[in-house]
């Protein structure tokens, strides 16, 4: 084996600390994910999960909360009494005030209260507001619990612009070395996203076509039917561009556009993703005006149910924050020059979907004169959620005599049916990678900062113009100007019934 390709080994002992252990993310995603991995026997033999929060709970109280959360977020068929009890016995809670030194002394004592504490891998998952990242890391350093085996996990957003992202990275980087920092984007843990790498690089039929000669354009869509809900305060300071485009959609774009790495692992994938971000066409003011659309949902119907407007969800109508973004960009390199990448994301849309559509060019010559029926460009449709899979759209001849009747058909791969097994949640894969120390599916510092570098001119231009986001009724596909973004190029968005 190449000495640079080191396998990632499961440690024998691990203390997995969740700061924000009583929060929504911990109870809805992190703890159910760890339960499933425990159920499969994949966690270290000697592990503990330490929940840290301001809640006045003892171990029994937190375990009761987690038991309730598992009942809601884990399929009943996977809730075995013995397994749940075994998992809960590994959980411990600490009420901690970040400003109280004596509380940190108790946390230090809790981490040291195990046989051979120096042999345990320590994971610190910061499921808290980003403004606390630096101060928590500093406290961890002061009490002496950060060693070469420690890891810290940062949830998005990493800052709200380039300068603040650098501040966060600097603060965390003063305590943890870059290989110890895991900036998580749960989209990269989804099976279909990982399978995109396998489809591209473990099969030979696509690679000769994966370039500007044969690809007409690429669409990346992440649409949600939900509104801002209880996240109104956070969302109004972020908006769709910061909340979704700067991280999730750009990460998907990178995986579509990246060059083949020498192998999939460690820094090679991240090296290629950074090159894509650096090759994105810079957005001058006139580019922003022409190639971006921002919108905000009004009241409407979603799945037949009346829902309020963004202003009603927020409690006031003075905001200029966007809940929808569509934009056109280009990767300016040898492979992709001239191929438009269209991105869109929004809340209160007509469907919940995350998908990538690679649309190939029409055949250069029609060989079936007089043929009946309809044809459509070949498309590779990668379904990220809610139903993970892949669909290849082709043109085929309908059976029967009397000439050629052409019809679009599809070859479908549904992970749920092709692989007769439960599909793990994205966090399950990513948390295991953290414990094993595998950074491949996590964002590196230069990735985050390259994404902000490209995004910032859009934010500045929007802030400088008096134009407000365009309105769209909840339960629709967004503002009509988003459709025009493609129509002026002679294209249309690919919708589910196509």
Automatic annotation (TrEMBL):
Pathway entry: Carbohydrate degradation; pentose phosphate pathway; D-ribulose 5-phosphate from D-glucose 6-phosphate (oxidative stage): step 1/3
Family, according to the entry, reads as follows: Belongs to the glucose-6-phosphate dehydrogenase family.
Keywords tagged on the record = Carbohydrate metabolism, Glucose metabolism, NADP, Oxidoreductase
Q: Which amino acid positions bind substrate, per UniProt?
A: 186, 190, 224, 243, 347
For this protein, the record's PROSITE patterns field holds: G6P_DEHYDROGENASE
> Gene3D superfamilies attached here?
Dihydrodipicolinate Reductase, domain 2 (3.30.360.10), NAD(P)-binding Rossmann-like Domain (3.40.50.720)
Q: Which residues form the Glucose-6-phosphate dehydrogenase C-terminal domain?
A: 197-493
Compositional bias (Basic and acidic residues) at which positions?
486-498
Q: Where is this region: Disordered?
A: 467-498
| Domain (Glucose-6-phosphate dehydrogenase NAD-binding): residue spans on this chain | 18-195
Q: Where does NADP(+) bind?
A: 54, 156
Domain of life (superkingdom) = Bacteria
Gene label: zwf_1
This one is known as Glucose-6-phosphate 1-dehydrogenase
What reaction is this protein's catalytic activity?
D-glucose 6-phosphate + NADP(+) = 6-phospho-D-glucono-1,5-lactone + NADPH + H(+)
Cross-referenced Pfam families: G6PD_C (PF02781), G6PD_N (PF00479)
Report the source organism. Answer: Nocardioides conyzicola
Write out the function statement from the record.
Catalyzes the oxidation of glucose 6-phosphate to 6-phosphogluconolactone.
């Amino acid at each position: 084996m190449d000495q640079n390709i080191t396998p990632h080994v499961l440690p024998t002992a691990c203390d997995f600390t969740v700061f924000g252990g009583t929060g929504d993310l911990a109870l809805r995603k992190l703890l159910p994910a760890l339960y499933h991995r425990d159920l499969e026997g994949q966690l270290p033999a000697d592990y503990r999960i330490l929940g840290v929060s301001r809640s006045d709970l003892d171990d029994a109280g937190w375990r009761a909360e987690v038991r309730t959360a598992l009942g809601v977020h884990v399929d009943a068929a996977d809730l075995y009494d013995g397994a749940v009890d075994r998992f809960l016995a590994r959980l411990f809670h600490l009420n901690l005030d970040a400003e109280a030194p004596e509380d940190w002394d108790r946390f230090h004592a809790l981490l040291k209260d195990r046989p051979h504490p120096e042999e345990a891998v320590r994971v610190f998952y910061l499921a808290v507001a980003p403004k606390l990242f630096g101060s928590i890391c500093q406290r961890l350093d002061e009490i002496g619990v950060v060693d070469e085996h420690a890891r810290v996990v940062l949830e998005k957003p990493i800052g709200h612009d380039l300068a603040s992202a650098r501040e966060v990275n600097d603060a965390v980087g003063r305590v943890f070395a870059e290989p110890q920092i895991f900036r998580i984007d749960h989209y990269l843990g989804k099976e279909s996203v990982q399978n995109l790498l396998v489809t591209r690089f473990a099969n030979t039929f696509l690679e000769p076509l994966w370039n500007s000669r044969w690809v007409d354009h690429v669409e990346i869509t992440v649409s949600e039917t939900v509104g801002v809900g209880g996240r109104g305060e956070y969302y109004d300071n972020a908006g769709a561009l910061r909340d979704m485009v700067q991280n999730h959609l750009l990460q998907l774009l990178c995986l579509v556009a990246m060059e083949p790495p020498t192998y999939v692992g460690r820094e090679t994938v991240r090296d290629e993703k950074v090159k894509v971000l650096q090759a994105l066409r810079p957005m001058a003011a006139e580019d922003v005006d022409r190639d971006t659309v921002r919108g905000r949902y009004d009241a409407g119907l979603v799945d037949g149910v009346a829902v309020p407007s963004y202003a009603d969800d927020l409690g006031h109508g003075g905001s200029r924050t966007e809940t929808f973004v569509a934009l056109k960009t280009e990767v300016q390199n040898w492979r992709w020059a001239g191929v438009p990448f269209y991105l869109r994301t929004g809340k209160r849309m007509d469907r919940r979907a995350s998908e990538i559509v690679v649309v190939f060019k029409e055949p250069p010559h029609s060989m079936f004169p007089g043929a009946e029926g309809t044809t459509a460009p070949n498309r590779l449709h990668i379904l990220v959620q809610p139903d993970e899979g892949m669909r290849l759209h082709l043109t085929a001849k309908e059976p029967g005599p009397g000439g050629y009747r052409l019809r679009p058909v599809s070859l479908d791969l549904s992970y749920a049916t092709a692989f007769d097994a439960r599909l793990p949640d994205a966090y399950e894969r990513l948390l295991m990678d953290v414990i094993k120390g595998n950074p491949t599916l996590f964002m590196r510092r230069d990735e985050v900062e390259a994404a902000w570098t490209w995004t910032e001119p859009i934010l500045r231009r929007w802030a400088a113009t008096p134009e407000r986001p365009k309105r769209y009724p909840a339960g629709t596909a967004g503002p009509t100007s988003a459709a025009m973004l493609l129509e002026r190029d002679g294209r249309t968005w690919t919708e589910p019934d196509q």
